[in-house]
Amino acid sequence: MTKKIIVTGFEPFGGEKDNPTKYIAENINGRVLSNGTVVEGILMPVSVKRTADMLISILEEKKPDILIMTGLSGKINDINLERVAINILDVRIPDNDGNKPVDELIDKDGETAYFSTLPVRKILEDLHLNKIPASISNSAGTYICNYGMYLALNFAKKHGYPEKTGFIHVPFMYEQVLDRPALSSMDKNTLLKAVEISILSTLAIQNNE
Ligand code: PCA
Question: Ligand 1 center to residue 144 CA distance, Å?
């Protein structure tokens, strides 16, 4: 049976004019993968309130089998496959609505942490086979990206789907660092390709290939 696959990206935040994951969400939308699967890309707000509302309605209404969320981290040098989401919101820069929660539990009845259900090791191997720099990360931070990842995994635990969900952090894209050459960056189309590979790796695991 064909899988329903959703990829999310985020709006710009923290004073940045752009977000490479906006490019990913917009450009992966409608893309037909080499196995014939069509991917839906959705742009998400960077807001404690609106991210949660939108994410939960996407999950309830679209019922994806696979949800891969993507976000920018300005501190990384390669693609980070996030292994774990933790039950905390501790915001360093206000979200796009000006909210700045500190040391708050995401769900007071939720688990302390959830592991990604994406096959992060297999994705890593496949990215490296394609010569794309990537690593497994053991912290998605305590901002909106960790928040979204935690909410999706928390939802999956309660509702039994998405079968596979997790988070991929990407560095800046070249366009964002033209006047900041000390910052690490990657080509946006390589980032897009990396997300497509991640989907195919996840599907391959599900099909026991
Ligand atoms: N990165 C932020 C939130 C949105 C985004 O793209 C984060 O790492 O939490």
Answer: 5
